[in-house]
Model the fold of this input.
Amino acid sequence: MAITINGTGSITGLTAGGLPDGSVTAADLAAGAGGKILQVASYSYATATTQSTGTYVDSGLTGSIEPVAAGSRILVMVSALAKTFSLNNWSNGHGAKLLEGSTTLYVTGDEGMGFTGEAARSSYGMDMKHHVVINHLYSPTYTVGDTLSYKIQMRPYYGSSTISVTHQYNDTPSTMQIWEIAA
Done:
């Protein structure tokens, strides 16, 4: 059957798989596809990073995405694990921060907002395991072809605490998913 393009722009006679590879790009498919998921990038990290100062440090959990369409929104979903130890018994906790490059996008509360945890008290102090959950949707400024890079930073709330970031808790690594959503 011959391929025919009629006056309204419709095509007849084309079979599935009939176009050569590369003739339709992801950007072509994204045009007019508002709200559709264009791509998802997934990352995991299971090596502990330990520090005991009250400043934010890189946790090692990072990820990036190269948007394929202009004006997309980006959803960053993080499930990170941390273990905090404090000599002050209940006087511990932590803060977590999501950054795009060096720009802060989201900060959890220092004393428990954004995480759930369990604790074990001993005569040596308090040992707490925390599950940090961040879901952040925003509209970044970029040009198609740019790479958007993300990372998680954490810190103990009190200077006397030690935080072990991405502590392997039940053998589950910390994860980051980055979704590109069409505008």
Observations:
- Residues 42-181 form a domain with the Jelly Rolls fold (CATH 2.60.120).
- Residues 26-30 form the longest helix (5 residues).
